[in-house]
Amino acid sequence: MQIRQRDLDLEDSQERGIFARIAYGVGDFGPSMAGNTLMVFFCFFLTTQAGLSPALAGIILCLSNGWSAISTLLIGILSDRTQSRWGRRRIWLVGSAPLLATSFLLHWWIPPWQTGMQFVYFLGVALLFQTAGNAFTIPYGALLTELTNDQEEHLRLNGFRFGFSLSGCLGSLLLAQAINHWSSQPQQQMMILGSIGAIVIVGSILCCCWGTAEQPSTNLSQPKTTPLNLNALLNNRPLILLSGIYAFSWMALQITPTVLPYFIVNCLNLQTSAIPTIVVLVQGTALLSLILWEWLSRQLGKKVVFGLGTSLWILATLGLIDLQPGQLPLLYELAILMGLGMSTVYLVPLSLLPEVADLDEQVSGQRREGLLYSILVFLQKIALALGLFIVGQLLAGSGFQEAIPGPVQLLQPRSALTMIRAITVVIPVISLLTSLLLMSLYDSKAIGWNRVPQLRRATASNSNSG
What we know:
The chain is mainly alpha-helical. It has 18 helices and no strands.
């Protein structure tokens, strides 16, 4: 009877574990759908439907993303210090849901005002969305370490998260195509897409909060942040390396979809309708291969899997150098290979955060997952902003011409076509090679442990004197 009871308890524990993974993962479905929709459509919407100039649209995107980078650190610190009956993280998720949904929907309403007031309106909506988005993203990322202490379970949870995240990205593109067949009015299409996205945002976040349970905090009294606490962060070499790995790998992850449409239309002479097909192929492959990479990570280790995946991605990107018009089958093959490699960037870096947080706790005596995750996101956003700035400047300097009627690829100057091909390959490859180098240096168990006792005593002494 005792053996039978243990078997039943084990089965019950496994069922709860699977349910918690699904609940955690589904939390990122709606926000990812919204983020992907804004990334693909918002700038185009501002300049072709709202009637704003590209310069004003660029200012809106620049200011909102700049504020997003700053607010990540603020929210990371605040979420670490939050105490409630819901825990430290889920209370933030619940609070962010209505603001995130409302601000996403308001992106697609065009107020009947003058240009200056429309600029203020869209800037305010974008700032609100970025703030609400960080109020979800930072506590949600830190929630991973609140659910379990098992390193392998962290990997599984991350796999479920980005499985649902990629599903949300794909869902936004497929939904946009379906609405396009149903309605012929662009503004009505975006309002319908915004309304559906807002509902999905609230539903997915609430499902996550309902289906997960945070572990009781062992550090209810939060000591004040001191210079030696900051010193502990600066001396946490795994954190510094992981920040670089995350920033450079995700810069490649987000710049690639930005420059790929230019390459598809201008260098391969394809229609714009081919862009969603290629993007869906890349993201769909990344989604399907998550299960494979998760299994290989348990067999070979996270560093090995990251090296294999990014190497495949680099090879596929290098294959674009000589890709010519008419080689559509080869383009599809390279897109699949890119998606296969991208999957490891979704899976591995963030699954290393819990062990970095463990090392930080050894030194500081605090669980600061929110702060640590916000540092990763802050640096990633800064790297992305710089990367996109470089792309824009290089395109402008090459003589790229906007809004050319007819076959765009035939009217662009040769210098612009050469630059498009170069930035499509060079920037992602350099970013991925840098992340590979940093990953080769990463070792949470061997780096920095010799300084832990001294830093711990110094931190404790400083806290007592404060």
